[in-house]
Amino acid sequence: MRDLVEIGMGRTARRAYELDDVEIIPSRRTRSSKDVSTAWQIDAYRFEIPLVTHPTDAIVSPGTAVAVGELGGLGVLNAEGLWARHADVDEALFRLVRAMEDAEDPTAAVRVLQELHAAPIRVDLISEAIKQIRESGVTVAVRVSPQHAAELTPDLLAAGVEILVLQGTIISAEHVSRDGEPLNLKQFIADLDVPVIAGGVGDYRTAMHLMRTGAAGVIVGYGYTPGVTSTDAVLGIGVPMATAIADAAAARRDYLDETGGRYVHVLADGGVLTSGDIAKAIACGADAVMLGESLAAATEAPGQGLYWTAAAAHPSVPRSHVSAGVDQEVDLRSLLFGPAADPRGVTNLFGALRRAMAKTGYSDLKEFQKVGLTVRG
């Protein structure tokens, strides 16, 4: 039964929970972490860790997409980002770093990003970036926005994209527009020969609608990171992640029954910063997590310690700061698998997930989604 609270006469709101509000309960059984599998599979593509990168230029270049793929995750390149617009991305990033050094103008970096993204998308540039990833042998995934999906997707598929991530702050299966023809998501997905991951969503009903479009995966959240994203301040929209993940997982279960066995994966994108957050996101029902700021500390990250989301470059309503909050540098392998010297849960992210599963007695991710949870008082 939903937990409703009265916020005023005749007006109620649902009580919802963040990942920080829940804790995992150990079971009566433990096992060796060597006997634990963190693998998952979407469509024909198998990954050894439940990691999908948040598609921001701050952490994903063609090179880092390859590195993430070789380590068992899925790197997602932004097909509308800097690698799609500028031949010399290093110079573009240098401009951004210099703007961050302007202490007298806190908006300088965002203005630089807006200017850089005002350059037109060039098919030859994004095709070359995709080619670099494809030739490495890892799975090729790119992100497009709903506004440009119909226009860009044919060229992206021709370049070798294997998984398409259709992502915006909020995505619905039913977009109403007075200007132009809205994207028919169900028809769009049906016409493609590659799996589509779509989102973000924050509730059961929208998740169910997206699943019914034929999406192979649904993204829960919009990449919320404290101090980086400002969607809650700008639009008043917030997604308490523990509740949102659990609601999407319930939609997945009901859709599985409705279709007689079609399983749609749930990806948690937001509020996942530490290894404990990863474990709790899976425990709430996620199949994988989309990591953003957590990966900015990697020495391979193109942002050189800076972090922002794609919403920072919106021409009129930016919803992300450029953050310089990374206080350490570590290579990507150590960041994901250790060994760690930092006790805050910000390195050895998936080694810690494996240990959490072992400590609670679960051998794979599907089992771990059934682990007991408590809510902090």
UniProtKB/TrEMBL annotation:
Q: Which InterPro entries match?
A: Aldolase_TIM, IMP_DH, IMP_DH-rel2, IMP_DH_GMPRt
The superkingdom of the source organism is: Bacteria
Q: For the IMP dehydrogenase/GMP reductase domain, which residue ranges apply? A: 18-308
User: Does the UniProt entry include the keyword Thylakoid?
Assistant: no
Q: Name one GO biological process term.
A: GTP biosynthetic process
GO terms for MF: IMP dehydrogenase activity
> What keyword terms does UniProt attach to this protein?
NAD, Oxidoreductase
Q: Tell whether Transmembrane helix is among the UniProt keywords.
A: no
Family, per the entry? Belongs to the IMPDH/GMPR family.
Name of the protein in question: GuaB3 family IMP dehydrogenase-related protein
What does UniProt list as this organism's lineage?
Bacteria, Bacillati, Actinomycetota, Actinomycetes, Pseudonocardiales
